[in-house]
Amino acid sequence: MVTHEKVIRFPGFLVAVMVFLFGFPAGLPTALAQDDAAVLQKLAKSCTSPRACLVEAFVFDGAAIHPLAVRALAGLPSDGRAVITAVDLEAAQDANQFCCSDSFEISLDEAGHIGATIDLVDTFSAAQVPKEDCPEGCWFAYRFQGSTDGGVAVVQTWERSGGTATFSSLLFLKYRRAAMFDGTGWHQQVQLTSLGKLNLGEAAEAPIVVKGGSVFVGEREIPVAN
User: Is residue 3 included in any domain, yes or no?
Assistant: First the structure.
């Protein structure tokens, strides 16, 4: 496993997305000042079991779910359907493919939901984008919006990948255990699976509310299959 020293930077584009995700204007200093360990400790106190932490807080094994793992499930903004539909959470949290565990920033919004932002230029992962291709910055962010009564996690994502547009999607994710072969044998692993996504388009700024077995995007109700 390759590790790199964490360097915290807040260039203009990252400040802009954090303002967008965390509030105007008072929310920004709060988000910037949040300490990762304090955020995770607060979330750990709110859930009673590993499964509860996944469903209620979008946290796995005491850590925020890596934004690049979520990005893999989100796929390309131009694709209307999920292509990659499962990620091995245990492997993803410590994988060179999604390097590194200290390469992104996390925070809580006013509702206590976790979010994460990663700079795609500064990352050391396979997702790194050349700086010259990102004159306006390249980044990916997600915000957990809650889970349905059936345990489907609803996650909103934002991505800027080189142009001036920011694309937003709503992901429907669920956890399951599956037998996975790791070279030594078959073992039960926790997978984060995609049940689908909604490209939000003009609805990107609409309020997202998770209630019972439905998700409300503005005035639109989306019943969620379990």
Answer: no
